[in-house]
Every structure is written in structure tokens, then in C-alpha cells.
Amino acid sequence: MKSFFSHLPFFKGAKKQKSRTFKFVAAFLASVFVSFVLVVIIGWIVIDRVYVVPPELPPMPTRHPPTLNIPPSSTSQENENDDETELTLPWYYGLVAPERFTEDDRRDNFFTFMIIGLTERYLANTIMVASYNYETKEAHLISIPRDSLINTNRIGRKLASSYLAGGIAALQRDVMTVIGFVPDFYVILDYDAFFAIIDAVGGIIIDVPFHMRYDDPFQDLFIDIPEGLQRMDSYTALHFSRFRQSNIAGFRSPPNSDYFRIESQQKVINAVISELLRPSNLVRVLDFVDIFHDAVETNLEFGNMLWFARELNHIRGTDALVSYTAPMLGTSGEPMWYELLNARGIVDLVNRTINPFYRDIELRDVSIVTQ
After folding, report:
1. Please, what is the end-to-end C-alpha distance for the chain in angstroms?
2. 317 and 302 Cβ atoms separated by less than 8 Å
3. Which pLDDT score, from 0 to 100, does residue 293 have?
4. pLDDT of the residue at 142
5. Distance CA 349, CA 360 (A)
6. According to the per-residue pLDDT averaged within each range, which of 7-11, 69-73, 284-288, 362-366 is highest?
7. Which sequence spans correspond to the domains of the chain?
8. CB neighbour list of residue 286: distance below 8 Å, 6 or more residues apart
């Protein structure tokens, strides 16, 4: 039964007005939503194409110093301050690429990195050189033992002491003597950065091969990690990556402690990448890049980090990032316990994995002490 008022002209007009108002509001909200989506899409495309870009490769290092044009002083006041003038040289000055190589020898879209983990005493506890080939989506990583004997005149002749001796420039020079070239980019992490990154991804999953026990009151280091598959927080992951041998009766030590620790550090790197590639973490890529940017020392720009973070999507599975350890000849023994590098083995490995040139690195391009 229809209402009496529904027959009245005024009521019919009110219903039509209400219907038109509802349609107008619905159309307005729909247009606002579509506009918002378009703005977001266009904004992301602009950011992705303009800001999220691959890094520019640094110039090829050279023996020749850069030309510094210093204008002559024109006043006595300026002459008085001439002695106070400081010249800032490029970071790559003094780092020598293979002399017979030119920019034309560089592979396109091939990036190399030096990854360094520092202790609280600024010793390089972890030294790795990695590469990423954008064309093939392949990544390789070579670990260099921290106790490697390097060709230098300073007192500390272990690679671990390079950063303490002269910062990133000294470390780059010493790594160059081992692999034959200067990696394009560097990433330096201390313990605080290690904690921040692993906590940000929610911990990492590691299969511990045996019960690890080690006590060192002088370093305030007490390691106690049970055997088995487990999710580690940053504190436990740091202990896992530092463990070399046990000093507790009844607990196991690996046969080669230094190589074992290198393998553990590589497992941590792979575990972090696996966590970053989880769907729940992929949507937080901006958060991770921001944490990474604040926690580490690097010559990568923020937009470059975003680009490499996006490229992680192409590095899926355990076969995507292949890890190696620099071939060794053995140890020097007491009293210094230097690790002696295998020059021929390293040159062969570099050419198969991380060489950024079309031409091969040769023995004459490295300076490796073998005894």
C-alpha cells in the first residue's frame, strides 16, 4: 500500500532531488578515488624513473693526479691565507686500475661492492667483495679472510688492520692488491648497523650445525647457541657470525676455524636477503632502505639503494647469490698466523665471478704475498 504523501507533487520532487544528490555524491567520491589512484600511480612512476635509478659508476682510477685549477690570489689578505688552503682530492685518487684497461673495457650494467664488517676496535672482521650483473640478474660474493697477508710497508700487515691504518682509502688499496681492481661501491657496517638491520627484518633463520660454546670475559663475549634450525635475533646472529672455536671442555670446534667463520658470515648474508624477499617485508622496502641509509657508511645514494632493493626481487632462491672464499695456500704459523693467499686461484675466481671488465685480470694486476 503506497503512502498518501507519495502522490503529492512535492514529495515526488523531494525523492527525485534526494536521488540526484546521492548520485552526485557517489560520482564525486568515485572521481576523487580515481584521481587519488592516478596521482599515486603517476607519482610512483615519476619517483621510480627519476629518483630510483642505478648508480653512476665512479671514474676509472688512474695513476695520474687530477688537474686542480687554483685561481691566483689577487690581494695581500688572500696571500696571507694561502698556506691555510686545503685541497680535497677525489676519493679514488691514488687507487690504480690495471694500467692497460680503459673505460671501454668496463662491462655495461655490472656493479661491484666491497662489504666490510667492523669490530668495536675498527678492525675489519668481515671482508667481502660482491658483484651484480643487471643483464643476467646474477650475483656473486667472495670472502677474503681477515688475517690475509697483504703487500704493505706498514706494521700491521693483515687485511683486518687496513681500515684502522687509513680508513676506507687504505682498505680499498689493500683489497685492490688482492683482486686487481677497486670495487665501485663500499658498504661499511659496525655492530650497531648489524643489530639494526637484522632486527628490522624480524630476525633470521639459521641452521646451527652443532652446539656453539665460547667464553671470553676480556672481550665480554659469551657464546651459547644450541644446535638446530632456529630464528635468531641480532644479538644471537652476531655471536653466530663471530664463533670460530670452543674453549669449553666437551664442546665441538670446527677443523678450520677461520673458514668456518667465513661460511657462517655468508650464511647470515643469505639469511638476511631471504628475509628481505618475504612478501611481508617486500612492502616495507622503503623502511629498510631508510634504516640501511642511517646505519651504514657507504658511497651509494639513497635512490641507488632503492634501485638495488628493487633488484633483490630478481635474486630469488639460494642459487641466485653464489658465495665463495678466496683460495688460500695455508698459514704462516706462529707467531703471526698470516693466511697466505693463492694468487693464481684468486685471479681465476675473480675472472669467473666479479671481474667488472671484458678482459681478464692477470697475475701482473695483483700484488699478493705468498710467503
Report:
1. 107
2. no
3. 76
4. 95
5. 11
6. 362-366
7. 9-51, 101-365
8. 306
Higher-pLDDT residue of 67, 285? 285
Placement of cell 665471478 in the chain: 353
Locate 277 and state its grid cell.
624477499
> What is the distance of C-alpha 304 from the center of its chain?
11
- Return the CATH number of 101-365, one of 3.30.160.20, 1.10.10.10, 3.40.630.190, 3.30.499.10: 3.40.630.190
What is the distance of C-alpha 145 from the center of its chain? 18
Which residues lie below 8 Å from residue 283, measured CB to CB, with a gap of 6+? Answer: none
pLDDT, one tens digit per residue, over 156-180 is 789 999 998 888 888 988 999 999 9
| Residue with the larger pLDDT of the pair 49 and 271 | 271
Name which of 93, 72, 126 is nearest 269 in CA terms: 126
Hunting for cell 685561481 — which residue is that?
Answer: 71
DSSP, res 84 = G
Q: How many CA atoms within 13 Å lie on the side-chain side of 162?
A: 29
* Exposure string over 20-41, b if 16+ CB within 10 A, otherwise e: eeeeeeeeeeeeeeeeeeeeee
Cis peptide before 90 (omega within 30 of 0): no
Tell me phi and psi for residue 149, to 5 degrees. Answer: -80, 125
Which residues sit opposite 150 in a β-bridge?
Answer: 368
**What is the amino acid identity at position 229?**
L
Q: Could you give the C-alpha distances from 166 to 176, 180, 271, 339, 350, in angstroms and in order?
A: 15, 20, 32, 21, 25
Contacts for 24-28: CB closer than 8 Å, 24+ residues apart = none
pTM for this structure? 0.73
Residue 23 banded pLDDT, cuts 50, 70, 90: low
pLDDT of residue 219: 78
Predicted pLDDT of residue 278: 79
The answer, yes or no, to whether residue 359 has pLDDT greater than 90, is yes
Which cell is 179 given?
683482486
